[in-house]
Design a protein that fits this description.
The chain contains 10 helices and 12 strands. It has helices at residues 15-26, 45-55, 70-75, 77-98, 135-155, 181-194, 215-226, 245-256, 280-283, 293-310, and strands at residues 7-10, 32-33, 59-62, 102-106, 158-164, 166-168, 199-203, 209-214, 234-237, 242-244, 261-265, 274-275. Strands 2-1-3-4-5-9 form a 6-stranded parallel beta sheet, sandwiched between helices. Strands 6, 8, 10 and 12 form a 4-stranded mixed beta sheet that branches. β1 (7-10), α1 and β2 form a beta-alpha-beta unit. α1 crosses α7, α4 (77-98) packs parallel to α5 and α8 crosses α10.
Length: 315
């Protein structure tokens, strides 16, 4: 990937896509192509075909997706599987048809079985059932991963994938119901502090273990993978460090400055009991994360405050 390469970042307004754009620009890559959802509907195959044909893209990073937490995935499974299947199929197939040199598709570690052996190896894919609460999203992401694998196998194109763990950072989604756990906790504790509430209730038992990676670290990992001559078909992109939801809630409360009590609503679903990736494969290629969870949460909260004040908070 040279400095003149024409790079398309799908989903550039999302947390991961915007982090990739920032990281590319910081490294001197200025020939970056983006489209908003209103400018290009990635579920429309003919529109995607026309875009690729017109732009002569060299590299594509597919960070666009319909995303959400447990509540959103459980409530809207039809939309999650349809939209994400369409995005994967159109962006990958039409890239190949248009002669795109290289494509990196972003999935999620929810592609792995609910009870996969921990930490999760890439080879555990499709070895047992998925977590039911996000099965629709996971199946669509598995399809995208397999599209890249088989197009590479059959046509020799350098299409490959990265499976990020739970990401957070600048530009995260802070919707009160449909956001992921970390931004949801940041918003909840911030509002509890402002409203001087004596107690905050966290969904579930607090016992499940989760792994988090800052979006800036993820962006560095994605660019690293794009520069590899022979990358794995798919690779885990994580921190290799886990924390319980209960301890995460305490960390967020401390970061925000909330001093009230915590309680846990055990009537709400916990999801997968433990989900940590084995990142040996990507570390062996020369990449590792740099941002600790403590520093990352502090940074994310400052970004939340700025975005909230500016009125640009995604909700």
């Amino acid at each position: 990937m040279n400095i003149e390469s024409k790079i398309y970042v799908a989903g550039h307004r999302g947390m991961v896509g915007s982090a990739v754009v920032r990281a590319l620009q910081e490294k001197g890559y200025n020939n970056i192509v983006t489209r908003t959802r209103s400018e290009l509907d990635l579920t429309d195959q003919s529109a995607v075909r026309a875009f690729y044909e017109a732009e002569s893209i060299d590299y594509a990073v597919i960070a666009a997706a319909k995303v959400g937490g447990i509540h959103a995935n459980s409530t809207y499974p039809a939309e999650f599987i349809y939209e994400n299947l369409a995005i994967a199929q159109n962006t990958i197939h039409e890239a190949h048809t248009a002669g795109v040199k290289r494509l990196l598709f972003l999935g999620s570690t929810c592609i792995y079985p609910k009870l996969a052996e921990q930490p999760i190896l890439e080879s555990s894919l499709l070895t047992s059932p998925l977590e039911p609460t996000n099965e629709a999203y996971a199946i669509a992401k598995i399809a995208g991963l397999k599209l890249c694998q088989f197009y590479r196998q059959q046509y020799g194109v350098l299409f490959h994938s990265a499976m990020p763990t739970n990401l957070y950072g600048k530009g995260d989604n802070y919707h009160p119901e449909n956001s992921h756990v970390l931004p949801a906790l940041i918003r909840r504790f911030h509002e509890a502090k402002e409203q001087e509430l004596t107690e905050v209730t966290v969904w579930g038992s607090g016992k499940p273990l989760r792994e988090f990676l800052h979006s800036d670290d993820a962006a560095e990992g994605i660019i690293h993978l794009l520069k590899l001559e022979d990358p794995p078909d798919w690779v885990n992109l994580g921190s290799g460090v886990e924390i319980s939801i209960g301890e995460l809630a305490k960390l967020v409360a401390k970061t925000v400055g909330y001093e009230g009590n915590l309680s846990f609503d055990t009537s709400k679903p916990d999801g997968t009991p433990r989900k940590m990736t084995d990142i040996s494969l990507i570390k062996d290629t020369g990449w590792k994360p740099k941002i600790s969870l403590e520093d990352g949460v502090a940074s994310a909260y400052q970004d939340f405050l700025i975005e909230n004040q500016e009125g640009s908070l995604r909700v």
